[in-house]
Amino acid sequence: MKFVLFSLLMNVPNAITGETLTTQQKFQNIIAQAVLAEELGFEAYGVGERHGTPFLSSSPPVILSAIAARTSRIRLLTTVTVLSVLDPVRVAEDYATLDHLSEGRLEMIIGKGNDPRHYPLFGISEDEQWDSLAERYALLKRLWNEENVTWKGKYRTPLDNVTTQPRPFQQPIPIWHGSASSTLSTELAAKYGEPIFSSNSFHPQAKYKALIDHYRERLSYYGHDPKNAIVGSGASSLYLANTPEEAIKRFRPYYNAFHATDAAQHNQSPFKDLEDNIENGPILVGNAEQVIEKILNYHRAYGNQVLCISVDGLNEAEQHEQLHRFVNDVMPVLRKEIPSSLWESKPKILHVNLLSRGV
């Protein structure tokens, strides 16, 4: 199994001390966190995209460029790029630039996002999100794969003989599809024969498993071998301690603080409390043995080769403690139990044959 550390740059008062970082301090914290992730052996670092409090992650390509300048090996993911509201020309330019600055370490995860506040900011309605995502992604693919693009659609002005600059460093830039709530996202991924990344953050396992199963079924429909499916998975928050009781006691204030935010309320968690989430949800809170067994349980359901974790909301000392615990006590077992060749060479993209389906 391969491992991603990610952040949405959630900047809330610390649940224990009440301290709030300045915006500048939070940005520096994230850059330092990414540097530490590389030092500790994580394969990738991800930055999500949000457009409203308490998140500071409105510009992932800018943040990831700063991280690229301070690192040399770790892959750089967008978790996710909210392509449903973005201009594909701007996305093509910004992320191709990042691809060069990172010397080909970029991997993009696209999605429609799960925060409805971004729709009025960018001039589309929530009802249009899926059609907008599909159209914008088709254009982005053309802009990266072709020169002299002429195009006409609904969600931006027409293009006439356009070649975006710079051209991507990687040919192609690896693209994943974020999967959280609808078969429309897994359908789009299967259509292009590209990997999916399950958010696996807010709901019971069965909901996300159904989406992953749908993805594999539709891969077969579009002529791809489901055995070659590449799946990543999130895991909500991480908190490790020597005993389950200690982990719950120490993490509870952070859990309660996050679930009081407007962003968390929008997701409408079905879990009544922290204990219910530990028992029936994706959160990774407990001792190392418990966390390992939960990750293995989810792997049996999803078949994921990648696990994405976060330590958002913790103070810097606890972030370091949790990452060191995870690397020392959890990661070696999972690497042994779930071998993966992903990212050991150029990332694997499923062969695409859309012409046979009239796409």
TrEMBL record:
GO terms for molecular function: monooxygenase activity; oxidoreductase activity, acting on paired donors, with incorporation or reduction of molecular oxygen. One of its GO terms (cellular component) is cytosol. Residues 10-303 form the Luciferase-like domain. Keywords: Monooxygenase, Oxidoreductase. The keyword Oxidoreductase applies. InterPro entries: Bact_Lucif_Oxidored, Luciferase-like_dom, Luciferase-like_sf. It comes from the Bacteria. This is Luciferase. It comes from Paenibacillus antarcticus.
